Predict the 3D structure of the following.
Amino acid sequence: MIAQLTVHLVWALAVATVVGYVVSRRRSEYLGPARWAYTLTSAGVGVVWLVLLGSIFSHDFRYTYVWGHSSRYLPLHLLLASSYAGQEGSLLLWALWLALVGFVVRSFARRLGWEAETMSLYAGVLAWMLLLLVAKNPFAFVWETYAEQGVMEGFLPAEGRGLNPLLHNYWIVIHPPVLFLGFTFVTVPFVLLLAGLWRGDSQRWAAVVLPWLGIAAAVLGLGIILGGLWAYETLGWGGFWAWDPVENSSLVPWLFTVAAVHTVLIQRRTGGLVRTTAVLVVLAFLTVLYSTFLTRSGVLGDTSVHSFVDPGFFAYVLLVVMMGIAGGLSGIFLLWRWKELGREALALPPNSRQFLLALGALGLVVSAIVVLVGTSYPLVAELVGRPKVAVEQRFYNLLHIPIGVWILLLNGISFVFQWRATPGGLVWRRLLLPLGATVAGTGLLWIGGIRDVWLLGLGASAWLTLVISGSFLFRGLRQNPPMAAALIAHGGLALLVLGVITLASLSWTAHVRLPQGEPIQLGAYRLTYIGRERIEQQYPDREKWRYAVSVETGTERAVLFPVLFWSDYNQRQAAFLEPGIGWRIAADFYVSPKSVEEVGGEVSEFVLRQGEVVPIDSLLQARLVRFQMGPVEGDTLTLFLWLELRSLHGRIDTLRLPTRMVSLEQTMPSWIAVGDSLEMAMLRFLPDRQDPARSQALVGIRRNRAAAREILTVEFSLKPGINLVWLGAALMVGGLFWAGVRRLRAAAQRTRRQRSAAAMQQHPASVAD
Amino acid sequence: MRIRPRYWIGALALAGFVALGISALEQATVQYVSIAKAIQLGKRVQIKGVWVRDVEPVYDSRANVFRFVLQDEHGDRIPVVYAGAKPNNFELAESVVVQGHVVGAEFHASAILTKCPSKYSGATPLQQ
């Protein structure tokens, strides 16, 4: 109750910040209070997050959110991740990032003299985010959420539902925060642009926005790539990108941002393309909102593997209204200053770098539109009353081959040109060597076995970029850091594409059954299922096994550990599967588990009644003594069956057979050894409701245990080029980040110089200190 | 006014790309239909439904084939054959979407999407 009131209060503070900053444009005495209001808002968001985190760590399952996303059996890092694993929590994380980044933005805008405009808009975005949190209360109590089920007020569930086992991975600590930080940084150029337009400063914002665009592209890009790594490492489908709507909706703002990075560079050099840049910056922000809408409103529920549930009508409306306001506001600002924005005529001779950069940015925009169309098509089709459809991956793949060739060619060649009409002779001289190397490199791809013409074309353009960026870097453009950062980023993209091509055409997969201890030869690889080991035994809500599989070639041997994870989360009905990966430089080994079964060792079944003696074989007799209730863990109950075994020699043993049961049909019997060659288990409990004393048990006997063998079925694949993908992605993001941070520093120095120059003119004496 | 060749080339390239895009979209969209409709069409479609719990889903590791029975919104049922293992989260799925086409009396699926009350929800009823 108090926590929820705090959310309301923080929201009100954010609104007050907006009002304070807007008023302070005319009356500067309001600037101080507005700053305080912002600081308090941020602190409030922090407090709200800490309260949620505290309730998670103290297992306060009275809160629906805590109950629904955590349990007592989670390690610290996953408890931390629970705080943003759900809708409400992830909105809160986003608000927290906005609040924190806001301090950096505030000091940046203050130095610039744009604080009032920038911060009123920025706080406006934060206020909307907080309004969503007000609508989607993270502190709802279970008796409020499940009121119609008659949950009593004050009820404290004994245990939480826990976190989906698919999310039990260290990547959940890394990927979502980085992605949300990326979304946060996309907000900054948007806000600065609008602030510039508001102030009537229709030119300077380009220089102001550039470093923030670089940082946004770097952080968002990093977030997207980390998502890919996570998918590769845990989901077991072996890929890193699936054109899933949720992935797509974070890619689109990234593409717009990167396009804006390029047009803003043109603007700095030539003064042109101002309007284009402005529109791209706005689109990047709007698509962040649109992506939030798509992924959180449940509208794409049927077509995405990321599953989301309807957040309630109010939040849905809020998101649409927020998109409308942000779009409308930026539309008004742009139209208001449209003429001034286009003041400088653009000089774009076709043999200049700016022309090629513009074409490259066009390619990025086309790519963004393609992804946007593909992602929204099912929604649009439904809205206009056409039958429900889904868009398959090949739509994106097919269209991105020509787009990829286009972008990559320009990506490399643009470096060869100058920021003015470039003489043809110079271009050819600079291109000669790279072209030769490209032919050689493409030949290598051919020899490597790539025969698809389109893929070869894509590969050739990637080689060209790689050779040009590599040779320019080598030739000592390191004295020119902005150039070096760009070369690294572009070379990284080329490596990434080469990796994707290699992976797409040269990886292979085989389906194989591995009986324990028996080596199976698969081409050049020898696979052996060695054995299994139980892990994470300290958590009673799960049974997690690590299967050791060795892969041997003539010269090397790697042991991989795919995991099967039975969890109370799905009542242990089926295992969650995690692949085992052998990281290698040239090509990863990838073992994706499919199933485990036991063969051999005949099982026979018989029914035991209370008190009845049943012969098991010629030597043994069994008698049911009693049933005993065991511990209850979540939905699972353990039932013990006490048996008396009487051997022909007169020896009597008492045996306890535990069986974990979710329901009468869903049981997980434990096999207990009897002597050397027999195992017994209670397969089913057959209750008698009238007379519990007459309840029966279905008992299984497994003979010849030594002959029983476990067979692990896996999909084994070789992933060549995957490390090029990661390396290329890292270089691309690193280059963007370097460029962004360097420009941010330069901008800070510039404003400092300007201010001291201004101060010198006004008070020459005071500068001495 | 004479239009410069640059714009002609640009317009042509754009038109070409848009045409390619439309044809790609037409090829790559798959309709959601009922089982009856899927049988009638015979082409690649998607069916949304629930998997029938009285028939146990079986994964045959030797053939690498997963079989289960799907029931659509109209109550029609069809056996589904999928070349691959049982997808993660299958048991939890409140609904499944299969993509593929009808061959004889079976639905040959090339992909199974499971929709779970999992990642971003806590919609499962609370047990006291």
Remarks:
- Residues 303-309, 765-769 of chain A have pLDDT under 50 and may be disordered.
